[in-house]
Write a sequence for this structure.
């Protein structure tokens, strides 16, 4: 039997090395033959939870859900010790950031990798239960994760006394019923509790008081899936995966959507340039068109320009250019596509998906949509350009409970900065003097 | 844009005396199974709504207090949940539900043409159901298949990229 990992002899693509889309996901025996669950076994038998936390902290694994917060630091806030009581680990598998399609691939094609990661991270924070919060539309992923989970449970990886240890861990797949805001970690917790998905005020942070008021860690799918590989191969190996392209560590699931020739998602060293994503992996823009602008990692990131293509796609470099790497899957706008129309589409999305909890978000986003529709129709008013600029401040950071409205303002403020002439072209023409 | 036309006559028409809503044994069994996944029964609210919707197509007003009782929360709380999530349908839908992605990557790869093609082919607006009860057309948040834009889902099936010219043949697979 040839092993799938043979295609990655140097272990440089930990997340996708076992993926063979034509053959489908590995079942438990297939996964175990590829060293699957050996990291979990090693962890439970050889390491204390604190040692695993230390390894992951040292590896500098930053959150792959968009914010880039170091996972090891996040976990270190969780109360430990025999009196810590019920604790929860939640996987944020509510992939709904427009332009993002990496977790779908990982979960559909490598479900056991996520199950192993959940159990291992559950052990590292000594959680009693884990939930995979999966968006309702991911039908195939739900089916495959549930199948993998049943296999893992039958094999003794999940349940009472995991692998014969003192530690017990229950794991469930929870499917959602829509709404983008569920991806916000405190809204996700409310949704998991069976409530409307309104965000909660922080502090207290979920690591102290989260799900049902208990210490809770929420991590993204891609973040979690890195952990078994880090424990197995060590922090230095993980740091080396970036091949010197970034001071961030590991690989990243990158991707490209929009009018490019070969859209898709690929695991590459973190710090790979956007130019390589677009020109090498995505085969350049479709129909020979020129690139006009690009979103680095989802709807809630600032637009960048062709002149930014040579920047390393990592958290700090993209931040210095005035945007955010976000999820790291770029969306490209072609030269003949309207920025006003693109921003109108983005703000319609954010306006609809606002949970309505905070006034600036609930009322400000529809206001921006109304103005943008007028500019798109050539009926813009000059003073409304100022209103749009002001909205980017009024809906900016610190005005609302969560990052929904500030995120919504990122593409708008950057479009106003780089493409003001396109907005001005949408001003209503003055009536001709009689 | 979604528009609902409410006729006054429909509002004042005396409601037909309907049989009281009762959960089937299968629904009750499935809800109880979900309850076992959580230390607090409220957490099963979304799954319970989805279970009833799976069997009946949608969740009626009459169903709310009965489901709420099954998971031991107030009907008002469950109503708040049932009206928050877009995948819980509070009006009857057609035999097949088309969810067309309207987010940025599909916007850049032909969403508006696809939407207009669907509206023309089906003769209903977004949010509408065809008179023969075959299709309901809904907009949906990014489906996480942006490399295949423009995308849509019909029931549990993902399709993409879909060109307006392919709509007719695609829909024929959903009688």
């Amino acid at each position: 039997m040839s092993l799938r990992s043979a295609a990655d002899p140097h272990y440089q693509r930990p997340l996708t090395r076992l993926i063979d889309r034509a053959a489908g996901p590995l079942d438990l025996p297939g996964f175990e033959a590829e060293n699957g669950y050996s990291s979990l076994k090693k962890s439970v038998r050889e390491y204390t939870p604190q040692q695993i936390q230390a390894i992951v902290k040292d590896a500098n694994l930053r959150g792959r859900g968009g914010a880039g917060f170091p996972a090891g630091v996040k976990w270190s806030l969780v109360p430990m010790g025999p009196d810590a009581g019920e604790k929860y680990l939640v996987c944020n598998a509510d992939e709904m950031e427009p332009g993002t399609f990496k977790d779908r691939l990982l979960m559909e094609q490598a479900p056991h990798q996520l199950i192993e990661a959940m159990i291992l991270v559950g052990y590292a924070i000594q959680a009693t239960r884990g939930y995979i919060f999966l968006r309702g539309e991911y039908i195939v992923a739900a089916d495959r994760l549930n199948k993998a989970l049943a296999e893992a449970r039958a094999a003794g990886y999940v349940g009472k006394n995991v692998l014969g240890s003192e530690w017990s861990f229950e794991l469930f797949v929870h499917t959602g019923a829509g709404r983008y805001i569920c991806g916000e970690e405190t809204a996700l917790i409310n949704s998991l509790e069976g409530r409307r998905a309104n965000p909660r005020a922080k502090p207290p942070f979920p690591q102290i008081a989260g799900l049902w008021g208990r210490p809770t860690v929420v991590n993204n799918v891609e973040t979690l899936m890195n952990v078994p590989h880090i424990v197995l191969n060590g922090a230095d190996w993980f740091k080396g995966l970036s091949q010197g392209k970034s001071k961030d560590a590991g690989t990243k699931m990158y991707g490209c959507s929009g009018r490019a020739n070969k859209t898709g998602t690929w695991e590459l060293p973190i710090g790979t340039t956007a130019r390589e994503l677009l020109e090498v992996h995505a085969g350049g823009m479709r129909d020979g068109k020129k690139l006009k602008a690009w979103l680095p990692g989802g709807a809630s990131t600032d637009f960048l320009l062709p002149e930014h293509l040579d920047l390393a796609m990592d958290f700090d470099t993209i931040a210095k250019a005035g945007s955010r790497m976000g999820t790291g899957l770029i969306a490209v706008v072609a030269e003949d596509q309207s920025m006003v129309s693109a921003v109108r589409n983005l703000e319609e999305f954010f306006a609809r998906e606002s949970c309505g909890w905070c006034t600036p978000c609930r009322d400000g986003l529809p206001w921006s949509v109304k103005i943008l529709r007028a500019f798109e129709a050539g009926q813009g008013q000059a003073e409304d350009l100022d209103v749009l600029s002001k909205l980017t401040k009024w809906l900016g950071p610190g005005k609302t409970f969560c990052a929904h409205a500030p995120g919504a303002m990122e593409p708008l403020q950057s479009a106003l900065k780089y493409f003001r002439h396109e907005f001005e072209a949408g001003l209503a023409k003055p009536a001709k003097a009689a | 844009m979604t528009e609902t036309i409410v006729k006054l006559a429909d509002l004042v028409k005396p409601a037909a005396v309907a049989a009281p809503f009762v959960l089937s044994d299968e629904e009750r069994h499935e809800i109880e199974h979900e309850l076992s996944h959580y230390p607090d029964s409220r957490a099963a609210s979304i799954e319970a709504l989805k279970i009833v919707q799976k069997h009946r197509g949608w969740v009626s007003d009459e169903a709310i207090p009965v489901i709420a009782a099954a998971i031991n929360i107030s009907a008002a709380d469950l109503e708040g949940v049932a009206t928050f999530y877009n995948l819980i349908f509070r009006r009857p839908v057609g035999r097949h539900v088309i969810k067309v992605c309207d987010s940025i990557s599909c916007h850049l790869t032909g969403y508006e043409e696809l939407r207009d093609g669907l509206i023309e082919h089906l003769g209903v607006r977004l949010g509408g159901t065809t008179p023969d009860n075959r299709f309901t057309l809904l907009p949906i948040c990014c489906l996480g298949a942006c490399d295949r834009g423009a995308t849509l889902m019909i029931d549990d099936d993902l399709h993409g990229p879909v060109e307006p010219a392919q709509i007719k043949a695609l829909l024929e697979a959903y009688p």
In short: The radius of gyration of chain B is 18 Å. The longest strand of chain B covers residues 96-101.
